[in-house]
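Progress against Task 2.4 (sequence-to-structure conversion) is shown through the following example record, which the project officer requested during the mid-term review.
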Amino acid sequence: MKKLLALLMALVLCATVFAGCAAKEESSSQSGSQSQSDSSSASTPAGGEKTDFIVGLDVSFPPMGFMSEDNEIVGFDIDMARAVAEKLGLELKLQPIEWSAKDMELNNGNIDCIWNGMTITEERQENMLLLRPYMANNQFIVVAKDSAIKTKSDLAGKIVAVQTDSSGEEALNDDPIKDEVAEVVSMADYVSALNDLKIGRIDAVVIDEVVARYYVEKEPDNFTIIEESLKKEQYAVGFKKGNTEFAQKVQDAFDELVEDGTAAEISSKWFGKDIVLK
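Structure tokens generated for the chain above:
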């Protein structure tokens, strides 16, 4: 009888322990679910409204967007994007990207748009939703100040650098002179290309006019421009295909900045005159 009673008490004790563990596990699971729910609701604004404007850019593309000596991202496009964000009541977030990965960054939703002196090309028109052109540009050739290269035809037999996946690369590929150059070097950014030009590792760089003039003005003893355009083009802001509603809000805000004179002021700050397309 004593053995039977002890066995019954042991069974009751085990049942109590298991019940307690199950209740604790259920409580922990509910707490974890609640925690995840709270975290999710904290990261999502009430009503699902957008609160930020994430702009993707190459931070070595002055004067459109680049790192200042104070390690801050500045430039014409930055000032315009900030003014647009203020009009829309959004927080501007600047996201540096590899230029060759811009389509992936855009399509993956890591950024809202590419706003960085981006040239309108047929391929980009097919792959992106582009806003109205806002600035004209040329693809020029920059050489060392003491270079013997004076015209485009002088590139024959020379080493020429381009930025990877840039309109400058496309312009060179479309020009007959491409078949005469000794080598085309594809580089990640213009800063690296111009540094290589300065030390004589390459002979020329195909580069956007706005960037070329910025560097020539900054370092007149090192660089000069061949005033012979490889290609005329225009800049536009690019959004992911289908993001029509938000893209239109940005376009409307940009147009307001043109109308009220803000765009002209920002342009004069960076270029000394108003070069924004109306």
